[in-house]
């Protein structure tokens, strides 16, 4: 698992519009909230995505961009965003490469079959590309508000 104080792994993934989004683009300008979630349009993931979207202007005021990542493809992200009016960008990691870099994949057994899924996790990366918080196994309800207060603390300490 990643720890606070480490450099954040590189991320270069397409969003719902098939535009490549790279973490490097925000370096020196914005903090990044990178949140990993299991699946588009499932109850917990929908709560979390709407919560982050509802607070997007608060994050923007704090020089912070919120990016969601799952293993769904760009089309799935597009319909999920449209259906719920999401404003946060969702990035597609269909082969799980970025998920592996952030160590968020876990194997669980369902109906006698092993299935790889994403552990709901959030990473707060400062403007220098350093991980400030690595939160594994988070609960979707109320999570966006918690993350917002962590960002407020980060900004008030001048990092």
Which helices and strands occur, and which strands form pairs?
Blueprint: E1 12-14, E2 20-22, E3 31-36, H1 43-54, H2 56-61, E4 64-70, H3 74-84, E5 89-92, H4 97-101, E6 105-110, E7 113-118, E8 121-125, E9 131-136, H5 143-156
Parallel strand pairs: 3-4, 4-5
Antiparallel strand pairs: 1-2, 3-8, 6-7, 8-9
Describe the structure.
- By secondary structure, the protein is of the alpha/beta class.
- It has one domain (12-156): Glutaredoxin.
- The chain has helices spanning 43-54, 56-61, 74-84, 97-101, 143-156, and strands spanning 12-14, 20-22, 31-36, 64-70, 89-92, 105-110, 113-118, 121-125, 131-136.
- The strands form three sheets. A five-stranded mixed beta sheet has the order 5-4-3-8-9. Strands 1-2 form a two-stranded antiparallel ribbon.
Which features characterize this protein?
159 residues; alpha/beta; Glutaredoxin; two-stranded antiparallel sheet; 9 strands; globular
């Amino acid at each position: 698992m990643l720890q606070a104080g480490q450099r954040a792994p590189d991320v270069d993934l397409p969003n719902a519009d098939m535009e490549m989004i790279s973490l490097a683009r925000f370096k020196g300008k914005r903090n990044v909230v990178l949140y990993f979630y299991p699946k588009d349009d499932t109850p917990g993931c929908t709560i979390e995505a709407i919560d982050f979207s509802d607070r997007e202007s608060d994050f923007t005021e704090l020089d912070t961009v919120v990016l969601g990542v799952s293993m769904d493809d760009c089309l799935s992200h597009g319909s999920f965003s449209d259906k719920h009016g999401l404003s946060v960008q969702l990035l597609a990691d269909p082969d799980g490469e970025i998920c592996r870099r952030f160590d968020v994949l876990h194997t669980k057994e369902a109906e006698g079959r092993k299935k790889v899924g994403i552990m709901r996790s959030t990473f707060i990366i400062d403007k220098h590309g350093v991980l400030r918080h690595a939160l594994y196994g988070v609960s979707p309800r109320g999570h966006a508000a918690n993350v917002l207060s962590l960002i407020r603390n980060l900004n008030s300490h001048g990092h």
